[in-house]
Amino acid sequence: MSRRLKTAAGLGLTAIMLFPVYWMINVSFTRDTDMRASPPHVFPFDPTLEGYRAVLDQQLPYLGTSLLVGLGTVLLTVVLSAPAGYSLAKLRPRGGGALSFVLLIAQMIPGIIMAMGFYAIYLKAGVLNSTAGLILADSTIAVPFGVLIFTAFMSGIPDELTAAATVDGAGPLRTFWSVVLPVSRNAVVTVSLFAFLWAWSDFVFATTLDGGGDHQPITLGIYRYIGNNNQQWNAIMATAVIASIPATLLLILAQRYVAAGVTAGAVKD
Amino acid sequence: MAHDTTIRTGAAATVPVRAGTAPARRARRTRQVAAWAFLAPVVAYLLAFYAYPLYRNLDLSLRHYTVRSFVQGDAPFSGADNYRTVFGDPSFGPALLHTVVFTGVSLVFQFALGLALAVFFAQSFRLSATLRALFLVPWLLPLIVSASTWSWMLNSDSGIVNAALGVVGVDPVNWLTSPQWSLVSVIIANIWIGVPFNLVVLYSGLQAIPGEIYEAAALDGSTGWSTFWRVTFPLLRPVSAITLLLGLVYTLKVFDIIWIMTRGGPTDSSTTLATWSYRLSFGSLLPEFGPGAAVGNLLIVMALVCGLVYIRIQHRQAT
Asked: Which residues form the ABC transmembrane type-1 domain (chain A) (predicted)?
């Protein structure tokens, strides 16, 4: 096969793979009256923005909550996992191996089971339907991954660098804060991106722990849409398009971090 | 004060000291204290937000709960009763079977497609890197987005899939609303979501195979298919094992896609252990928390067995 032919084949395969994404965008611009057309319109020749107008009218609070939950999860995840990664990579604690093992196992526990445990605890503690509770629960998806990524990355920092800091009189805290953390920027970015994306996409914790809350995330916004009005698919798909923006931005702005994160022991619920 | 001791710890760490002397021992001890001080937040976190919910879940599965006692927390201990209920439930057999079929079929297709695409993209051509990145999109989208898009595409009356089938003369299929097809539908959507992961991991595995091996194979007259089966595939076996086992662990716990697309229905035809567990605990006005937790714990055991196999294989490869 010539190289040009391969590029053509590659384009074709990508087009097939991304067809559902195209369809989502297509439907989001389709008029209600054309929605049940047979055969379906493969291109919105007579596009409408009513779907997006519905999003602006009804879904903005959900988007705001998701943003807040995502950022909160990022913060919590990085604050918890970066120091742990530093310790496991550079300070060689006794029992560190066992802890890494526990973290690997923790990643494999189905989210739905964690959700049940959280539900029982939150119900008793009276923190069901709270944003903070949702942030805490969402962070359980990302923290084990975060520690493993930070450990792997910080193990690659030359010992000479930390030793030099020690000779200059820096303790572990200083070394961590002023030497290790600044050179670990890539790891911070990778962990933050994935933590945000997982929290943003989470449905399991949202539906169990925040199903009756005043501030619900966008995944529940879409879910309620599907449940309530089976007819307004342009509004549903418009919300889906908006909910996909973080993933798209991430891919455009931070492609290499994404690939690194996937191969570094990818996890997804 | 604290600062003082840390300085000494650091110095002791860089200067080789004979083990056993009192200062060295003290230095090592302060170093351990520092190491665990950095770990303390995560350890506390794991205990509070992993171990405790799991313990609560185990506790739920061993007691007889009603809505009232769930709130008050005074449910009587009932031993393995919930597990017996679950095993005796007519839903158990189908749910287990669907879980196995869903996981197995998803894995086979995800892996085969991912591998084929990885081999394809490993060749150098223009736009290769960009297109490979675009392939990640399905994996990055929120599951609710993918699931609702597929729901509409598979809609019996107005979906594009049935319209396309109509063009080639196939009668419309009730993808989501007929018991024969609902499991197939959620499997199709799940394969679509999982291909990118397999592609990326297998692609990085392919990159790790040194080019000289291919050159040597070419010198021996090996081409195309035979190179793939005799060279690429055997060398890719370690990465393949890891990919499949990770896929297994993550497919076992798939819940969102099935619940959003079919809610496990119609009449349990796409119910897996994960959706069954959720339905028992949250799906109706009369929640059965005990059996729900019991199903969940069975799922954990299955995931952990696969997980331990994965860790063992990975460990053996690393050494």
From this structure: 63-254
- Pick the residue from chain A with its C-alpha nearest to B39: A84
Question: Are the beta carbons of A190 and A96 closer than 8 angstroms?
Answer: no
A256 in contact with chain B, both atoms CB, cutoff 8 A: no
pLDDT band at B14 (very low <50, low <70, confident <90, very high): very low
**Burial class of A227 by CB neighbour count within 10 A (0 to 12, 13 to 18, 19+):** exposed
Which CATH code of 3.60.10.10, 3.40.50.300, 1.10.3720.10, 2.10.220.10 fits the domain covering B90-318? 1.10.3720.10
Cα A182 from Cα A198, distance rounded (Å): 25
Question: Would the ipTM clear 0.90, i.e. be above it?
Answer: no
Domain ranges across chain B? 2-61, 90-318
Please, are residues B199 and B135 in contact by the beta-carbon 8 Å criterion?
A: yes
Q: In this structure, how many other beta carbons lie within 10 angstroms of the beta carbon of residue B67?
A: 12
Q: Min CA distance, B180 vs chain A (Å)? A: 23
- Give residue A1's pLDDT: 63
Chain B: nearest CA to A124, how far in angstroms? 7
> Which pLDDT score, from 0 to 100, does residue A264 have?
62
B165 pLDDT more than 80? yes
Q: Supply the DSSP symbol for A33.
A: G
Greatest alpha-carbon span in chain B:
86
What whole-number distance in Å separates Cα of residue B57 and Cα of residue B18? 50
Rounded mean pLDDT of A138-157? 90
For B138-175, b/e burial (b = at least 16 CB within 10 A) is bbbbbbbbbbbbbbbbbbeebbbbbbeeeeeeeeebbb
Cβ neighbours of residue B143 closer than 8 Å, sequence gap 6 or more: A201, A203, A269, B193, B256, B257, B260
Could you report the per-residue pLDDT of A108-135, keeping only the tens digit for each?
A: 888 999 999 999 899 888 889 999 999 9
In degrees and rounded to multiples of 5, residue B236 shows phi and psi of -90, 0
Element containing residue A260 per DSSP (H, E): helix A255-263
Interface residue A39 vs chain B (CB under 8 A)? yes
* Amino acid present at B262: T
CB contact under 8 A, B141 and A262: no
pLDDT for position B4: 37
Residue B304 to residue A120, Cβ atoms within 8 A: no
Higher pLDDT, B18 or B183: B183
Q: For B77, phi and psi rounded to 5 degrees?
A: -70, 135
With CA atoms as reference, report the closest residue to A110 among B268, B249, B260. B249
Pairwise CA distance, residues B47 & B38, whole Å: 16
- Percent of chain A scored above 90 by pLDDT? 46
With a cut of 60, say whether residue A143 has pLDDT above it.
yes
Q: How many helices (H) and strands (E) does chain B have?
A: 18, 0
Residue B98: strand, helix, or coil: helix
Nearest CA in chain A to B149: A24
pLDDT at A85: 94
- B68 burial via Cβ count (<10 Å: 0-12, 13-18, 19+): exposed
Alpha-carbon distance of A70 to B49, in angstroms, equals 18
- Strand pairing partners for B77? B63
- Model confidence at B20, pLDDT cuts 50, 70, 90, reads low
